[in-house]
């Protein structure tokens, strides 16, 4: 059985209490000991490998810039957020105690000639599974809070501008003084298993027709995660779940989700795609799924996602990709 995607180990001490103190972020920046995590157009600055990467190993890494590598004047509109300080013993290349600060550049940041050679801006979906676990955790945190700032510049109560406070973890309306914090939207994601132990995977209209994955949906107001899972599965693939087993959760910053992963059990044998979100749904035995992935008939979610964790949890081990060896 594969290890669920929920190690309790964390890379950063977010210092939630300290960052609420007035002037905390400015004090950290004044020390010059921090390292900068740079985002632009919702992509992170990533160091590329010097050679053609082996896709089974973490060859890419976050580019952590020192204060001296940053331009004297960052583009107007750059959002700064204190991410936390590196904890010891988590296998991170930076020294324990190193503070990390997110610099989210505006869309119209202009010339970025100060970006180091060998680094470029990459999306998490593209490079996530090739990052070391510690870097991936930091990118997800930075992506989520950067997305929130980019979409919450005005007060939802009165429409006036909001200013960032508390080291970037709160925005306050300049007119009515109301305080607003980053949102996290819960979503249930389910690997559906039938009475014969086959798994039901779905193909979404937004995907290539060969891509199959688990079924997911947002939990609605006043609804438990389990009730949301049952409802979403019934709506999207027409299957009734009679039992759910919680496996793991994963922060997924597109745009600000917390994916709650389940194995769901059904006695139904016929799936009915809704033809609105889901184009097709297909049952796979373990041998059928591995064979379909190896011969290219099916493409499943990447190992950076909890969807893959759930599928491999059901499978009982690693599902090989084309070209990989057992």
From TrEMBL:
It catalyses: a 5'-end NAD(+)-phospho-ribonucleoside in mRNA + H2O = a 5'-end phospho-adenosine-phospho-ribonucleoside in mRNA + beta-nicotinamide D-ribonucleotide + 2 H(+). GO terms for molecular function: metal ion binding; NADH pyrophosphatase activity. Pfam families: NUDIX (PF00293), NUDIX-like (PF09296), Zn_ribbon_NUD (PF09297). SUPFAM superfamilies: Nudix. Coiled coil: none annotated. Keywords: Hydrolase, Magnesium, Metal-binding, NAD. The keyword Magnesium applies. It is an enzyme of class 3 (hydrolase). Its EC number is 3.6.1.22. Its cofactor is Zn(2+); Mg(2+). GO terms for biological process: NAD+ catabolic process; NADP+ catabolic process. PROSITE patterns: NUDIX, NUDIX_BOX. InterPro entries: NAD-cap_RNA_hydrolase_NudC, NADH_PPase-like_N, NudC-like_C, NUDIX_hydrolase-like_dom_sf, NUDIX_hydrolase_CS, NUDIX_hydrolase_dom, Znr_NADH_PPase. The keyword Acetylation does not apply. GO terms for cellular component: cytosol. NCBIfam families: PRK00241.1. Belongs to the Nudix hydrolase family. NudC subfamily. This is NAD(+) diphosphatase. It comes from Arthrobacter psychrochitiniphilus.
């Amino acid at each position: 059985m594969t290890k669920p995607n929920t190690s309790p180990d964390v890379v950063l001490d977010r210092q939630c209490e300290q960052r609420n103190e007035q002037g905390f972020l400015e004090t950290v920046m004044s020390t010059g000991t921090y390292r900068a995590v740079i985002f632009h157009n919702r992509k992170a600055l990533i160091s590329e490998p010097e050679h053609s990467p082996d896709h089974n190993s973490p060859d890419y890494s976050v580019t952590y810039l020192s204060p001296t590598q940053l331009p004297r004047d960052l583009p107007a509109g750059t959002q700064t957020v204190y991410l936390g300080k590196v904890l010891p013993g988590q296998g991170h290349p930076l020294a324990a105690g190193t503070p990390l600060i997110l610099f989210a550049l505006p869309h119209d940041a202009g010339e970025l000639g100060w970006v180091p050679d060998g680094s470029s801006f990459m999306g998490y979906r593209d490079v996530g599974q090739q990052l070391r676990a510690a870097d991936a955790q930091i990118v997800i945190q930075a992506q989520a809070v950067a997305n929130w700032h980019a979409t919450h510049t005005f007060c939802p109560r009165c429409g006036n501008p909001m200013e960032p406070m508390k080291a970037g973890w709160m925005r306050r309306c300049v007119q009515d003084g109301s305080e607003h914090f980053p949102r996290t939207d819960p979503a249930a994601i389910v690997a559906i298993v039938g009475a014969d132990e086959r798994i039901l995977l779905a193909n979404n209209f937004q995907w290539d027709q060969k891509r199959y994955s688990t079924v997911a949906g947002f939990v609605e107001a006043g609804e438990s995660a389990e009730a949301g899972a049952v409802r979403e599965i019934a709506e999207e693939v027409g299957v009734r779940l009679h039992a759910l087993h919680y496996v793991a959760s994963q922060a997924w910053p597109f745009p600000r989700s917390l994916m709650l992963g389940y194995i769901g059990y059904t006695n139904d044998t016929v799936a009915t795609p809704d033809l609105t979100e889901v184009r097709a749904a297909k049952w796979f035995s373990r041998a059928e799924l591995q064979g379909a992935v190896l011969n290219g008939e099916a493409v499943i979610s990447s190992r950076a996602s909890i969807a893959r964790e759930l599928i491999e949890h059901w499978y009982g081990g690693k599902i090989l990709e084309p070209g990989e060896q057992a």
